[in-house]
């Protein structure tokens, strides 16, 4: 599994979004991308994080960023999540787990003593040349977009 660092080339990917449209990181060449990984659609922490990006979406776009959320949920789940919370950005379905593995966020977790594999909450800021400029390991779900705006200052 990859351990990515600031300055590394961001792994490209090909997947489907919540509308069944093919999406690749290469589609965003020349644009800054906020690529955020989250465990599951429509759960309290993931909803808070997505709504934070929604609420500050215009501020992020005005600073030249595209927002892309990635989880291992399917397209149908993503579409329902997008519709329920009026999310204005792309949600990528990584059912094969290729993207979460390439970014090193498919990890062993432990809940109530039970170990299982799942997606670590992590955000990557990728510049227009496809290079990772920032990595946020400790995501504050309610203030995730503000964390990014603070990093950009």
Automatic annotation (TrEMBL):
- EC numbers, comma separated: 1.11.1.24
InterPro entries in alphabetical order: AhpC/TSA, Peroxiredoxin_AhpC-typ, Peroxiredoxin_BCP/PrxQ, Thioredoxin-like_sf, Thioredoxin_domain
**Stretches assigned to the Thioredoxin domain:** 4-153
CDD domains (UniProt xref):
PRX_BCP
GO MF annotation: an example: thioredoxin-dependent peroxiredoxin activity
Q: Which residues form a coiled coil?
A: none
Q: Name one Pfam family in it.
A: AhpC-TSA
Subunit structure of this entry? Monomer.
Lineage top rank: taxon:
Bacteria
* Protein name per its UniProtKB record: thioredoxin-dependent peroxiredoxin
Q: Which organism is it from?
A: Mucilaginibacter roseus
Q: What reaction is this protein's catalytic activity? A: a hydroperoxide + [thioredoxin]-dithiol = an alcohol + [thioredoxin]-disulfide + H2O
Q: What does this protein do?
A: Thiol-specific peroxidase that catalyzes the reduction of hydrogen peroxide and organic hydroperoxides to water and alcohols, respectively. Plays a role in cell protection against oxidative stress by detoxifying peroxides and as sensor of hydrogen peroxide-mediated signaling events.
Q: Which UniProt keywords apply?
A: Antioxidant, Disulfide bond, Oxidoreductase, Peroxidase, Redox-active center
Which protein family is it in?
Answer: Belongs to the peroxiredoxin family. BCP/PrxQ subfamily.
């Amino acid at each position: 599994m990859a351990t990515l660092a600031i300055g590394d080339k961001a792994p490209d990917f090909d997947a489907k979004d919540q509308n069944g449209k093919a999406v690749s990181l290469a589609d965003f060449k020349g644009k800054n991308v906020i690529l955020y990984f989250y465990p599951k659609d429509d759960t309290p922490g993931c909803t808070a994080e997505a709504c934070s990006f929604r609420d500050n979406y215009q501020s992020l776009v005005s600073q030249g960023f595209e927002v892309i959320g990635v989880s291992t949920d399917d397209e149908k789940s993503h579409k329902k999540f997008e519709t329920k919370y009026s999310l204005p950005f792309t949600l990528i379905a990584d059912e094969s787990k290729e993207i979460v593995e390439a970014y090193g966020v498919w990890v062993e977790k432990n809940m109530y003593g039970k170990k299982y594999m799942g997606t670590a909450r992590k955000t990557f800021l990728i510049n227009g040349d496809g290079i990772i400029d920032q990595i946020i390991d400790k995501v504050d779900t309610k203030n995730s977009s503000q964390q990014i705006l603070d990093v950009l200052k």
